[in-house]
């Protein structure tokens, strides 16, 4: 996702730095330039919600993992406590 963002940012910068002369071809290229800018912005707007969804899924996986590790620690602690009670 970051690669796509960097690619479109580089594309946008390259389009901004192009100097078009004052001839008939320049008008068509300016329309193409405007189309590329709109396309890159629309793709960025499309991927932004997907990135936030991915971030929330990764947060959920992290919380689930921490909860699972905590429960496993309590289980192991309970087993060692039971073994300690039996040995006494």
Q: Indicate the low-confidence ranges by residue numbers.
A: none
What is the arithmetic mean of pLDDT?
A: 76
Question: What is the helix content?
Answer: over 70%
Rounded radius of gyration (Å): 28 Å
Q: Span between N and C termini?
A: 59 Å
Quaternary structure classification: single chain
Largest sheet: none
Total number of distinct structural domains? 1
In DSSP terms (H or I, runs of 4 or more residues), the helix count works out at 2
Order of helices and strands: HH
Based on secondary structure, the structural category is mainly alpha
How many runs of DSSP E, i.e. beta strands? 0
| Share of β-strand residues | under 5%
> How would you sum up the global shape?
rod-shaped
Jot down its keywords.
88 residues; mainly alpha; 2 helices
Quick description:
This protein is mainly alpha-helical and 88 residues long. The chain has helices spanning 2-17, 24-87. It has one domain (2-87).
Q: What would your notes on this structure say?
A:
It is a single chain. By secondary structure, the chain is mostly helical. It has one domain. Helix content is 91%, strand content 0%. It has two helices and no strands. Helix 1 runs antiparallel to helix 2. It is rod-shaped, with a radius of gyration of 28 Å. The model has no long low-confidence stretch (mean pLDDT 76).
